Amino acid sequence: MQIFFFSLVLCFVLISSQTLEEDKKALLDFLSSFNSSRLHWNQSSPLCHRWTGVTCNENGDRIVSVRLPAVGFNGLIPPFTISRLSSLKFLSLRKNQFTGDLPSDFRNLKNLTHLYLQHNRLSGPLPVILSELKNLKVLDLSNNGFNGSIPKSLSGLTSLRILNLANNSFSGEIPDLDLPKLSQINLSNNKLIGTIPKSLQRFQSSAFSGNKLTERKKQRKTPFGLSQLAFLLILAAACILCVSGFSFIMITCFGKTRISGKLRKRDSSSPPGNWTSRDGNTEEGGKIIFFGGRNHLFDLDDLLSSSAEVLGKGAFGTTYKVSMEDMSTVVVKRLKEVVVGRREFEQQMEVIGMTRHENVAELKAYYYSKDDKLAVYSYYSHGSLFEMLHGNRGKYHRVPLDWDARLRIATGAARGLAKIHEGNNGKFIHGNIKSSNIFLDSQCYGCIGDIGLATIMRSLPQTTCLTSGYHAPEITDTRRSTQFSDVYSFGVVLLELLTGKSPASQADSVTTEGENMDLASWIRSVVAKEWTGEVFDMEILSQSGGFEEEMVEMLQIGLACVALKQQERPHIAQVLKLIEDIRTIDTE
């Protein structure tokens, strides 16, 4: 009996090895048709670990992903090569110079879920064999030379979520594609005629622009001569204007009162708390310390007499936007729950003030007295990542963040955090990374604010750490955060960028078996079920561009950052390189 089982195991190993060898032979046959200097595939090197763009399954016995964008391939896609990878799920050959028809033997790729062939020179009619790929979720054939009609047989792709056929030469009428899971379609810039089928009328008109389509039927008019949609939009806009006007009056009337009321805590007979430069005299109430060697010309009275509004209240204090008489704008943060003395406070401010980087919010000055501890920062007019991601969701006037903007935000924030971790001889930490502490500069790159405050403030309650969704599981005292817990928090921000979901609200609303589940845990569970596409923000998926491949890469980076064991998390320098490499191949 033991010999029998041993023989079975040996047979299984031989079959697996032979299958992997067959996959390797198929790829080598594919590569032999081209002369590409960017790939260094070697038959003697490990296939699953050393071959650029190739990914194997967990068992390491089959190839499941081939990603070869912009590597210089040209000519026909060689038949009976790629199609021999029977376990292939993900294929990207975008941004090459492939010509001719799509090989008919692609029908053998029964397990394929993602097919990216955009930005090539493929031509001819769309082959009917595509409808045989029943597991296909993403099909991007944009920016090619395909012609003929769009086959009705595509309705058979019942798992399809994204269909991009833009910038080709398709003609005829758009078939009535009954695709229940379709969340994004782009048929723009073809030669299509007729009307938009009822099944596709839920998508934005931009998805069909650049064709010769006739207009949809006009909507029924209201008694005022307006369409129902226009009437409702006008009514909604009027309501919003009323609310906004009332809010503006409240801010204008009470904004300055609130900041002056918070800061003035002295008797009228006491001298005012003057803010002087580093070389100035120290008053009884404390002094303001400026950074950067500049001689600032405002003091506390200037701030209190300027127009101010409350930007927000957080665990570390209240933040005000202050518009000075010289038209400049700064942010003043009044710190609460400071648990260190003057000396330690000033030492920490000095370390923060010396952390200068374009992706780190600049600490301009600080102020310490018995009653008030203040930090003065640069002001970012584009607001925070939290506001851009979650503000006005579901409102018709909201301008969503596209994928390019989110990638720039992630890149900038990673650069900023890498600089922070270099401070204090490589031991500096942030301690409170979240989307409301990441601001957007003029080019939409992320800039990290509120750095280094966690170590001088009272530790946040354990319940706050658990429900915020940002803190690493090992952190029980926020004053004892580490660089690895910073990486965890940054990973949550990456997941927030990808999903559009707030970690705090996710922790409250998503439960499994009666227990709360934070954003990171929810994404792990979804990805484990191979429902990766379900996690992405619909605001990104509804925009054209075909960036899901890059989003999947960012998702893997985010999941690595939120590893439950801190020793398994990458350093932020490694994270930064991975993010910057997402588009490396395309820019070579």
UniProtKB/TrEMBL annotation:
Limits of the Protein kinase domain: 305-582
Chief place where the protein resides: membrane
Keywords: ATP-binding, Kinase, Leucine-rich repeat, Membrane, Nucleotide-binding, Phosphoprotein, Repeat, Signal, Transferase, Transmembrane, Transmembrane helix
Signal sequence extent: 1-19
Binding residue positions for ATP: 333
One matching Pfam family: LRR_8
Localization per Swiss-Prot or TrEMBL: Membrane
Record-annotated membrane-spanning stretches: 229-255
Organism superkingdom: Eukaryota
UniProt-listed InterPro entries: At_inactive_RLKs (IPR050994), Leu-rich_rpt (IPR001611), Leu-rich_rpt_typical-subtyp (IPR003591), LRR_N_plant-typ (IPR013210), Prot_kinase_dom (IPR000719), Protein_kinase_ATP_BS (IPR017441)
GO molecular function: ATP binding; protein kinase activity
One cellular component term from this protein's GO annotations in UniProt: membrane
Protein name according to UniProt: Protein kinase domain
